[in-house]
Amino acid sequence: MVGVGIGAIAGLLISGLWYQKRRYRKIQSRAKIIRFREEFLCGSLADYYLSNSKANASPTNSRKTLATPTKEEISDSPASEETLVTPNKEEISDSSTSETNNLAAEPTPAAEFNLLSDSYHKLIEEIVDTALKGQISSKEYIYCQLVENVSSGNGEIFERCLSDRLHSTQSELDQVINSPSLFQKETPELKKARLNRTLKALQSIQGEWERVQKQKQNQAAVTAAVQQILTASEASRFSVLLQIIDPNQNQVFSQSQLQQLAQELKEAASSHDDLHRKQEIQQLAIGIANGVESYQQLEGSLVSWIYEPKATPLGLKESRAKQDPWASWALKVSSPLPKLLFSTLADGGSATEIVVHQSDINLKDWVELTVILQRMQQGLVTWFERQPYDSKWGTSASIATFLSFAVVWCELSNGFRSKGEELAKACFQIVLQILRTFAHREYFPLYGGAFAFFGRDSLQDAIAYLDTPLKEVEGTQEKARILTLLGYSQFILGKYPEANSFHQEALEIARQAGDQPCEIANLNHSSRVCVAQKDYSQAINYSQRALILARQAGDRLGEAHALATLGYSEVFAAQQIECVEPDVYEQAIEYLRRGLELSEKFSDSRFGITLAARQTQALCYISLGIAHVALEKPQAAVEYLEKGTEAVQFSSDKYLQGVNFLYLAESYYNLNNYEKTVYNSCLGMYLLEQITAVEWRQAAGLLTILQSKLGDEAVQQLIVKSRTNIMKFIGVDGYDYLPQLLEKYKRSH
């Protein structure tokens, strides 16, 4: 009995100890919950801990509510190390519910990021799995999935998830090692194939995501454009539109964006109360839409005129291309104003005439014309630049396209001056946009002049229309380059003071903008102008500065041209010295040979560089020829000058062409070849007189000497004999003008 009693007592003690330990664990669990709530405000985490403690406490996962221990019970616990104030059951319940609701309504940024990240990782895996199963028929499926499941404003999170997945896949792929083993669950070869397919699927997702982002950017640009137009004043609304579609902007509007812009402007106009403003916005919208539609009519045959044969008087077809696109385009466009413009230009008229004879200026029609011409110019330049079989011709055509369209807008601007200052400014705004785009091209001719490609001699028009307005433009790098082009164009027309003014202004702007190639080019051009004005010391000064700066900047083309202009200047300076010693020419000849050698390295480069290199070579050959004429070595002079004749044909430098023919005539005269003397004298006399260069009298004097030596009739027969070759350079009118020039010289002599 005693044993039974002792066993019963021992059992009760063990039961009591076990119950006390279990109760202590419950108290500690609730103390942790309270600590979470008070210190970290993590109500939801505490509830999660509580639910786990309930599940662990009861083997049957009972959902019974545990009694909350009182303060005294916690204090009486022997394991208690600190006094805790425990709220009652109702307080815990209310607090937990309130905090849970608050957290649900306003999740923390970290929690939200994790949720989105998990969601996007899951989306990526679903698309990849679908692709691996071969269940994706097109990329449009991926595009739709991204549009539907990636919320706005969270693109960066998706991009990070996609980037992580791409990098991990690529890393795993790089670590796969091929193995000859055939008894693995997945051989390295199969794993590599699977990873490659996964990588391809991920790259497709990346491509479609870029498409989604691009469309969002386009939509944002259109929305912003609509707001700019709606908030602009009536007078400046057209100019605002031109600024929006400026190809120099970071966001260049495509045809689809222009159509979308027109549609949203129509919708905005329909909800406007002001009738006048509503009609004006509608005019803009209709003009944009019509412009895109008209260009689409032309787009397929934009360059077809190049391949169109030209009819002969006998009704036959010539095989050579017809270089007159305006007539071809006039047949393919249906809108009245563009058709009228193209027909007028094809007949040799001016765009100014169209504006002057327009009794009513319809904004819709002018907006349409603006869109058409802008899209045509961009399309032509793009096509010309992509001609791999003849890049030189393509680049030449691109240069002429920029200049020709700029001239058309200049003419339109000039026509609007009498009708509305705002429209005149808007048209010239387009001119500046074109020239600014042109100035950024690699082939921009820093050593070339403006010349037209579309069968119209637009050089003088460009000079006349671009001279004054450009002086009002801010001093930018683009302006310096444009002024360089125009200054050179003035030079080849023989307008030396105007050319010098352009080059000096361009020189200052280029120096401020840090455009050293442009600065070097203007120093070289200024040297040429000074030679033409007989200021040889200043010419040598400019060319020496250009040479030093070019070597410091590493501008090899500028250095070659500086050597050429320095030798050219010194040759002409030496000619002014009576009884000059042969040694005086040696240094100039050395400069010219070095410049020629350096320029030949650029002969096989892109056309923009080749054109400048050919200019340099022409200058070197002609200067070397002149030097050998002075050294009384006519045969060597002829060899250099004949090469100069070939090289100078790449430019529109009439002065250099005329000087080349003049000294060829003198060389052949010294060789007693009178037929070639007459031929070259006629060409030199005509070309130099056309640009009012005084050297034309030197050529005319040589012909007069021949008349005295051979007789008038003999010289006339030689001119008639060379008639065909002379007309190739100066045409029928030039040939017929030769006798008048000789008479003019004789009367003034």
UniProtKB/TrEMBL annotation:
Xref: Pfam families: TPR_12
Region of interest (Disordered), residue spans: 54-106
Top-level taxon: Bacteria
Record InterPro entries: TPR-like_helical_dom_sf, TPR_rpt
Comp. bias intervals (Polar residues): 54-68, 77-86, 94-103
Gene3D superfamilies: Tetratricopeptide repeat domain (1.25.40.10)
Coiled coil: none
PANTHER family on file: RAPSYN-RELATED
UniProt protein name: Tetratricopeptide repeat protein
